[in-house]
Amino acid sequence: MMLESLRKSAEASFRETGLYLISVFLVEELDLEDVCARPELRRYRSIRTSVVRKLRATDFILLATFQRPHYDIALANLADNDLIKLIDCFSPSIRNPAYVQ
After folding, report:
1. How far apart are the C-alpha atoms of 85 and 4, rounded to whole Å?
2. Under a CB-based contact definition with an 8 Å cutoff, are residues 24 and 71 in contact?
3. pLDDT tens digit string along 75-90?
4. Which residues touch 47 (CB under 8 Å, ≥6 apart)?
5. For a tag on the chain, would you pick the N or C end, based on fewer CB atoms within 10 A?
6. Average predicted confidence (pLDDT) for the chain
């Protein structure tokens, strides 16, 4: 999640919805390989992880999209400080163990 990549994604969402949103998957499984093997995640070469309590502790709002396990993180703005705060909620990028081209 690089700063400009997040900003571009949120700007695209704003053009479509009027809200700054970042798309995420929210799953309950604790086994990373099981989570990554889900059809909607296998296409990503790398992933980052977080936990809901960390996002909530930094005042980010998770919005249900009603397309489980897809959620959106709502951003109040695209200020560098807020985007960096979001980046800091996630682990460094790791290889997706279930990646399939």
Report:
1. 14
2. yes
3. 999 999 999 999 999 9
4. 36, 41, 93, 94, 96
5. C
6. 92
